[in-house]
């Protein structure tokens, strides 16, 4: 194997926030990036900015078939994935459990849990074949610390945390690392999505706080991905 070949990171949810900043940083560092998300126009724009080392793939991560098709059809120069960054995710609503919208709950479970396991289950065998890989999952402080209205969102992130630990148990001795990265409040499109486009309400969330920036998370992800194997 030629270790001088660029490494490849597969990022879910690269159209915004953490995922987009991560794609830019890894590109800057000479990695190949597979950038994914539902908004094809944003992906094309980002791919143009990143150049030939990036591959845009538009699909809904909660659609199992789409995930499998996207991975199956990876061109040969992009199918040796060193890092899977399971980042796509969202919170919808902040209502208490007695008033929350069940469709919102479904969508959070479908994206944050099912999307993450689909990408993991589909890409993991490629990593096993290659004898190396690192899965970096985006959990959240919300998976450990409850807050009013966090109900299902926090529950999905608790899943991410425990699933990551159990993955580690399955992968002992196989050369694959697993990390659950669990940030606190960071300013991205997260709150605009949570409040369904209400930018004013979203901006209140970050008032009077020194929030984490997407670039801070990208740097953390890069650091995690580049630790020596020992
Ligand atoms: P953004 O809303 O800025 O980005 C979310 C990304 O997820 C977008 O690229 C979006 O792409 C993608 N996404 C959402 N649903 C789907 C789907 N069904 N299929 C494919 N892609 C999807 O939020 P953040 O960058 O803040 O969030 C990234 C991750 O970090 C999430 O998992 C979030 O829970 C987590 N997190 C966020 C924190 C914060 O305070 N911001 C703190 C801790 C964790 P598109 O819409 O184009 O599909
Ligand atoms: C996002 C952070 O605190 O808004 O995961 O839930 S928080």
| Helix/strand class | alpha/beta
What radius of gyration results from the CA coordinates? 17 Å
* Strand order in the sheet with the most strands: 3-2-1-4-5-6
- Helical percentage: 40-55%
Unreliable spans are none
Describe the structure.
The protein is an alpha/beta fold and 230 residues long. The protein contains 8 helices and 6 strands; from the N terminus they run E-H-E-H-E-H-E-H-E-H-E-H-H-H. Strands 3-2-1-4-5-6 form a 6-stranded parallel β-sheet, sandwiched between helices. Helix 5 links the parallel strand 5 and strand 6. The protein starts with 7 loop residues before the first strand and ends in a 5-residue tail after the last helix. The structure holds NADPH dihydro-nicotinamide-adenine-dinucleotide phosphate (NDP) and 2-hydroxyethylsulfonic acid (8X3). 2-hydroxyethylsulfonic acid binds next to loops.
Summarize the structure.
This protein has 230 residues and is an alpha/beta fold. Helix content is 46%, strand content 13%. Strand 4 (83-86), helix 4 and strand 5 (133-138) form a beta-alpha-beta unit.
Output the keywords.
six-stranded parallel sheet; binds NADPH dihydro-nicotinamide-adenine-dinucleotide phosphate; 230 residues; binds 2-hydroxyethylsulfonic acid; alpha/beta
